[in-house]
Each structure stands twice: as structure tokens, then as C-alpha cells.
Structures
1.
Amino acid sequence: MDVRVHSSFETTLAPSLVVDALVDMTPQRPLIWPHLDPARFVVRDRGDGWAIVMEGDRQLPIWQLARYEWSTPGTVTWTVLESNFCTPGDGIRVVVVPLPGGGSQVDIYWRRRPTSLLGSMIAVVHRIAGTRTLRSSYSRVFERLAAEAAPEP
């Protein structure tokens, strides 16, 4: 099974801040992305515009070792190197484009080919509701960050 999902939405968060949130590889990452388990977040290596990162889910027993790349302006990709639920080469690409007047257009391209029963269940959920699920989880994070970045009245 090869599941591909595309989700698109707008956020009030500036494009640079969207990209910053996606590529934050500091210990703050699990605070930015609440589904990440802080105990399983490890940056294995990093360079200019890339990082190799081990991440696990806070609620599900899944993990992945992925290579994040952000050398192309406005684009962040992460490609699975190893995982207990999907195939190496799977991953996500996020394209961020500035909107006239401020904010960002965010396009998420998600691909998974499951290698386990749990991976198959995740793939089926994303096949059915992936567009809505991705939009909801990412836009919540970006809108929270936009509210935090907004100057106080």
C-alpha cells in the first residue's frame, strides 16, 4: 500500500517562522510539536541546511530516523532512513509560500508505505482523513506560534 496525501492551508505565521518551526532541532522541538516524545528525540548529525534526527511519537509506539533538508528556500523535506512502521524513502515535503499581505500558504505532501500492522492502520487513517488531519495538526501549531509571536496590545 502506497498512501500519498496532499494538504494545503493558509496560516497567519510568516513563512520564515513556519520554516523555523519545521527545522527547529533544539530541545524545544517536542514543545513546538506536541506529538513528539522528548525522550526519543535525538539529533544524530547536522550540517548547513540538513539534520539526521531520531523521533518517536508521544502516544504511539512508532519511531523514525529521518534526514531533514531545508537548503531550498521555502521547502523542508524529511526522508525516512529507518523506521518501525514505514519504508525508507518515505517522508514529507512542506512548501511554504508568502501570501500577499502577510502569512503563508503551506502545502504538505505526505507519503507512507507501511511495514507493520500499526503502519498500515496509520496509512488507512491518512488515506481516509489525511488531508484534514494534516491541515489540523500543522495549522494548530502554526497558529499557536503566531499568537505567541504577536506583540501584546
Note: The first helix runs from residue 15 to 23.
2.
Amino acid sequence: MDNNPLKKKIGFYQENRFLIMLLMLFGLMLFHPLLSYIINISFLVNIITSFIFLSGIFAVSTKKYQPIIASLLALPVLVLMWASFFVDIGELELVKNLFAMLFMLHMVFLFLRHFFRQDKITREVIFGALAVYLLWGLMWTYGYSLLDHLLPGSFNYPDTFVRLEFDSLNYFSFVTMTTLGYGDISPVSAPARAMAMTQAITGQLYLAVLVAQLVGINIAQRLEKKD
């Protein structure tokens, strides 16, 4: 019997990697806007964000080149994110948002490939599918931030919202993806409208494909049990 504590921790992470990723994503998106009105938790948010990026690197890295690609995409984001505590990174914010968006897209691709290769419904499959949905929304958050830096005035903000604030654009991203359409933040420029429309369509398509995939796997499992 192997009592190596390090191997146990690694084994625990491997078994629960999608659940851990899902909890950190919820923590970033829900607790940050709720607690930011009470205390300054920028440091805590950066820690959670760093864990999301580091966890993503190893979550579905089944081949040697995958963590290398993920690391190259995550490194500029992590360096610039922590450097902003000490210096004004200025236009390098564009670089950070670009690499963050590409990293999220890379994670979504790896998670989806892993998900669609499964032939049994497990809790990790469900957690992974949910994590993809949140990563997709977060990817668009960074995309909107990048656009608003490159093309100021792309979004119309009410007086109660702060332009270029992560919470504001993250809120707009998920309101768009879930097609709630509150209309408090609205896309003004043509690129912003095109991005919002694309996100709304792909978000709904993903939910439809997700349900179809889970139903298909469930039917296959039932038929296999009968046989």
C-alpha cells in the first residue's frame, strides 16, 4: 500500500480536477463582485485566477506538448497580472487580455475533446461540461475587454457601471451568453455587436449539444446494461 502523501494529493487532484476548476471559476465570478463592495480583494482574486490558469494547464494534458502550449499562453497573463500590483502596465493590458482569451479558448478545446471522447456519464464529465460553459463565458469577457481597449466606446455603460472593469464586462458576457438581455450594458460598435451575437448563438448551441451528448451517452449506457 502506497502511503506517499504527495502521490495521494496528486491522485486526489486527478480525480477531482474538473470539480476544482469549476469551484474556482464560481469563486472568481461570484465572490469577487459580492465582496469587492466590502473589502479590497484584488490580491485574493489574483490568487484564484492564478490557480485557474495553473489548474487548466494540467487538467486535460494527456500529451507532452499540451502543457507546453498552455504554459506559453498562461505565462504572459500571470506575469502581467502580478506586475500590475507594482507598476502601471499600460498598453501591456492588451497583451494580457489577448493571451488570457487564447488560453481560455485552448482550455475549452481540450475540455471539449476530453468530454466528447467519454462513453460514460460520471460526475467529472458533468463538472467538466459545466466548466467549459464558464470558461467560454470568461473567454468572451477578456475578448470584450480587449475590444474596448482597442476601440473605446464599443459599449454603452450606465452611470452605475465602471468602464473596463472586469466585473462589468464579465457581467455583460454572461448576460449575453444566457440571452437575458437586460440592456444596461449594450454593444454600440459593429465589432461589439458581432461579438455579442456570436457569443449568444454559440452559448445556446453549446447547451443544446451538451444535452444531446449526455442523452446519447445515457441511452448507450442503458442499452449496454440490457445487453
Note: The mean pLDDT is 83.
3.
Amino acid sequence: MFMFFHRRKKIIVDCFTDNAFAYDYAPIIRGSKAFPEWWKQLPDTDMRVINLLPEHKNMRQCYGFLEFYKCSIILPSWSDYHFKVTKDEGYYYNYSNGSAPIEHAKSQYEGGFNDYYHAKLSSPWMFREKTGVKFMFTASTWNLEGYDFLTLPGCMEYSVNHATNVHILMPKKNQTYSFFIPTNKPLVNIFPLSENRIQIKNHLVDEAEMKKISHPATLRGMYPLFDIKKKAKRCPFGFSK
């Protein structure tokens, strides 16, 4: 009997930034390098013991948890952020690196999330991936214990749109509250919608190169907004008019 093994291709994700601080102190990493500290402190029990004594089982053996990290890329915070959120007057912030947070107009999501304030954390990273595989963008929930904000998910194709901005929604409460996000705190886990392995390459480039990389971003997503009428191409085999 012959057995054939299919070698999985690598998905190469090139990660570009012109922010030297982010490159040195908050690089893009594999999820397997970002397991939360509380998880690391759990006892690593022998599976033979667990089979006999199931009460000894813990999240060190949780398949879904392990795959969440092993299959993903981590986008960490590239800055210290301090937010002060009020009930009726919006929010205030301080940050140590990169660009200031941006608040999108409420009209952009009118009718939804009325009890939250929006902030876009403008990431200094641009991703590029050539094959066109799609990536799921979701919160690093297991690393964000104690935070009330929501990290908004999405699906990206880094052969078209290279941005990695993080959108958060902060709840309006009856009293003013504050929270602090330190540099290198995992914010987002990014998953390729593919079984192939990920290879990450971080690149420190200059501002001119970053502009070249960002130039085509979002063009495909913008096309429907402009009601572009494309001429139908004639079939070379004569099956269309």
C-alpha cells in the first residue's frame, strides 16, 4: 500500500511598518507566542491521568483554545493608550506612539450600538499576501480580561486591502470610567481561511514605501459606491452578444 502525503503550502504574510518603535517592541507574531499568562500557570497534567481522573482536566488541554492561537497571527497594541469614557460627553484619550484614535460619525452605523462610543485605533502596520486568501479578523478575547470594550470583527483580503486598523466600541455607563491598554498587548487574532501554514515576515520600511503599499487599499471595496458600469466582454467563442 502506498500512502501519499500532501505537503501544505505556506501562506506568506509580509507585514510592513515605518514605525520603528512598533517594529522593535510590538512586532507581528504567531499566535502560539501569545498565550495568556494565566493559561501558562495552569498545571500541565498527563493525559493518561486525565483519562482516569477527568476532574484534573483544565484548559491546558482545550483543543479549541490551542488551535485559536496556533492557527492565528497576533496584532498587538503598538502604543500605550489611556481612555477616559463619560456617560454623555464622549471620551478622552492619551497615546504614546503612532496616530491618534479616530471617531467615526455615528451616521456610519446609525441605528446600531447606540449605547457605545466608537474609536478606530490607526495601526502602523500594512499586510500583504499574494494568493488572495481571506483572513478573519477577531478579538484576542482570552488576552483581554478586564476590558469592557468590543473589538469589531471582519474579513480581509490582504492582496487587495492592506490596512490593519482596530475598531473598538466602548460602552456608555452611568459613571465615568477609565482603562489602559499597554504596548504589546494582544488586540486581534487574525486567521487565514485556509488549512495552509502561515509564515510571517516583518519589514521596517520608510514612509515613501508605506505610501506605495497603502495606495491600492480598499479600491475593490469602493467600486460599488460609484455605480461603475463595466462593458461586458464578448465571449471569444461566440456564446454571448
Note: The two ends are 53 Å apart (CA to CA).
